[in-house]
Fold this protein.
Amino acid sequence: MTEATQRRSLSAIDEALRAQAIELPSWAFGNSGTRFKVFSQKGIPRDPFEKIADAAMVHRVTGVAPSVALHIPWDAVDDYGALAKHAAEQGVRIGVINANVFQDDDYMLGSVTNPDPRVRRKALSHLLGCVDVMDATGSRDLKLWFADGTNYPGQDDIADRQQRLADALAEVHARLGTDQRILLEYKLFEPAFYTMDVPDWGTAYAHCLQLGSKAKVVVDTGHHAPGTNIEFIVAVLLRAGMLGGFDFNSRFYADDDLMVGAADPFQLFRIMNEVVRAGALDPASGVAFMLDQCHNIEPKIPGQIRSVMNVQEATAKALLVDARALAAAQESGDVLGANAVLMDAYNTDTRPLLAELRIGLGLDPDPMAAYARSGYGDRIIAERVGGRPVGWGA
Ligand code: LRH
Ligand code: MN
């Protein structure tokens, strides 16, 4: 790393890291688990207001988590304006609205792709209802993930289901306001095990292309076949201007929804390297950086804090890549040299730099210590007695 590059880039790195915005999922603060068991923890929120309060605590100690994604109906309230006001009072804002057409008996054979037009209409009205929520919360993005698929060959017609999906997406796209977008999320399998109607980035890309300018693809890092080169997908979508955002998490096997960077920090670095290279880190780039995780056995708020820190560390490493030296090595075919430039950045300990950044933001250099010292965790355990702790409600 040349001195010149280092000097110049440190201030640019600092600026980029200060502007970083990582959106937290409201559902990460509720009880969650697997089909075997949803474990209940103490101090769990009983409503969306308390979920937002917990997310705001993560922002208070990290400084880079200014928004919370909602999931409807998990976060349904009578007055979304009041919820948005509450979020603002807590120092955060409501971000992406997630629709949910995967938890109703009517959706057993699909939601917008269901052979039964009555069920398709029901699902579509939920999606359109979520745009109404966006109007009330001031949210820009509607994230659509469909559990739709089939379990056995012949169960339904693949092409007909694609047409039904396209018809529903077109109606939602037409309903969007000027600055609103659809973020279409794909997933290889689960809960369907033969076909998923949006199984991969190509299918999502094709539907978004057909829809128009207000439709982008979401990359959930847990939704690929093992061994998939996710940063390749990211680079291709960024080059095409079709990447709308990330659902960050990590996994060892399937859609484990573990803390981002926990299972494969090197993969997260490689992904953020493509983001930085494309200039997509800047919030103005339109790429939404969201977490989509479940803290089944670990404390929820510290789990989110650690996850935000993991994204920051990977981002700082990506920003430390000596782009000039890398380009020179790549152009001269210096395979080992080019790889070494990237590994040099990856092997750089960015924790001191991030500690400095937090001090610069007026924060404790160690967010986990700041949270522990705040007593917030003990307070919510003491206060949140009675009521029904929230969960996935699966
Ligand atoms: C599906 C998914 C989707 C959400 C849900 C919480 O696996 O990733 O993003 O709606 O998790
Ligand atoms: Mn997701």
Confidence is low (pLDDT under 50) at residues 1-6. Residues 63 and 362 are 9 Å apart (CA to CA). Strands lie at 22-25, 67-71, 93-98, 141-145, 149-150, 181-185, 195-196, 215-220, 243-248, 288-291. The radius of gyration is 21 Å.
